[in-house]
Design brief:
The chain has one domain: SGNH hydrolase (Rossmann fold), CATH 3.40.50.1110. Helix content is about 50%, strand content about 5%. It is built from 14 helices and six strands. The longest helix is centred in the C-terminal third of the chain and has 25 residues. It is globular, with a radius of gyration of 22 Å.
């Protein structure tokens, strides 16, 4: 009996000790975490603080990080734009809580979620989420008791000790981060050699890349049954925004036209219309025409959601057209891109000469 008691006490002590070490490790550097996302959020928060309401807030994963040119959208809509989009592996609750924190009276919150966010599996914690939220993401999570238990269940003792040996985050000052963002803005469009892993966004929170296409050729997009949990989160977000006198509008992410998903075909149009119907039945308005956000492969980078700068301007103009109840003007988008590309090429030539 004593041995059993001693065994149980030992197990409890080990569990409590491990939990305490894990708690102490939270918020420390993890070299497997994508720490640039924290720096991007610092830039986005700063830009939100500097932008007077009423504004347009963009909330999603990386389809809008790469696919929105805030400067162009501001010029077309004559309203400040704050691009809050970052990483598609972050949970929906993370994106919505961050956006709610920034929202002010009069804001229009545009949410072009990637299609995977509507599926049931998104609410489950991924290894990516655990690694990043235990590191740079600590300040963004509401750490109530059950959230602590949920993350601790998915934690790794190896990662815990790795973080305990590391410094706390951030490793760069806010001033240094904002200076890099301003430098990125001066480049207009970035190239791979400009970005690295330090802090890739410009001072408006966009990531506009001048790179050739390198994405896949044939694939589909996930269209499963819309999760009740997703509907609940979006409805709660909508209600919370209304209390702040802000407005929510869902819209479509960018997609790449290919044999697996082609919005010139009735098969795939039907998929998007079923999604729209499900959301609107729940009282969640879905605006715009999904076909206006589908582009050719040449306008994508290394992912089915990442547009080149040219694609981002086309998508931005299409979004502005939707909000202004007019057809997209591809000629206008092409002229905007031509002018910006000339400035970007000149800036790149200057940088090259200075090296």
């Amino acid at each position: 009996m004593k041995r059993i008691y001693l065994f149980l006490v030992t197990c409890a002590a080990v569990l409590i000790g491990t939990a305490l070490l894990w708690l102490f490790s939270l918020g420390r550097y993890d070299n497997r975490a994508e720490n640039w996302v924290l720096r991007a959020y610092l830039v986005k928060e700063h830009h939100a603080e500097q932008s007077p309401a009423p504004r347009i807030l963009i909330v999603s994963g990386s389809n809008s990080l790469f696919g929105i040119d805030s400067e162009t959208l501001e010029a077309l809509l004559h309203k400040p734009v704050v691009n809050l989009a970052t990483h598609g592996s972050l949970g929906l609750d993370f994106h919505l809580k961050f956006a709610l924190k920034q929202a002010q009276a009069g804001d229009l919150v545009i949410v072009p979620l990637e299609y995977a966010y509507y599926s049931p599996s998104v609410s489950e914690l991924s290894d990516w989420q655990v690694t990043n939220m235990e590191s740079w993401g600590v300040k963004f999570v509401d750490w109530d008791f059950w959230t602590l238990v949920r993350y601790f269940r998915h934690s790794s003792i190896f990662r815990t000790f790795q973080r305990l040996k590391s410094a706390t985050i951030p490793l760069m000052s806010k001033e240094e981060i904002l200076a890099i963002a301003e430098k990125n803005s001066a480049s207009i469009f970035l190239r791979s050699e400009d970005v690295g892993s330090t802090m890739p966004v410009n001072s408006r929170g966009d990531l506009l890349m001048a790179e050739p296409a390198s994405g896949p050729d044939n694939f589909g997009y996930p269209f499963g049954k819309v999760s009740g949990d997703t509907i609940k989160q979006l409805k709660n977000f909508q209600i919370a925004l209304e209390k702040k006198h802000a407005t929510l509008r869902l819209t479509w992410p960018v997609t790449m036209k290919n044999p697996g998903f082609d919005l010139s075909l009735a098969r795939d149009i039907d998929r998007t219309e079923k999604l729209r119907s499900t959301l609107e039945e729940a009282g969640l308005p879905m605006i715009c025409d999904a076909r206006n956000f589908q582009f050719e492969r040449r306008l994508f980078l290394d992912s089915i959601y990442h547009l080149t700068a040219e694609g981002a301007i086309l998508r931005t103009e299409a979004l502005a057209a939707c909000l202004q109840n007019r057809p997209p003007d591809k000629g206008l988008a092409a002229e905007i891109y031509r002018k910006k590309k000339a400035l970007a090429d000149a800036a790149y030539a200057t940088r090259t000469q200075q090296k």
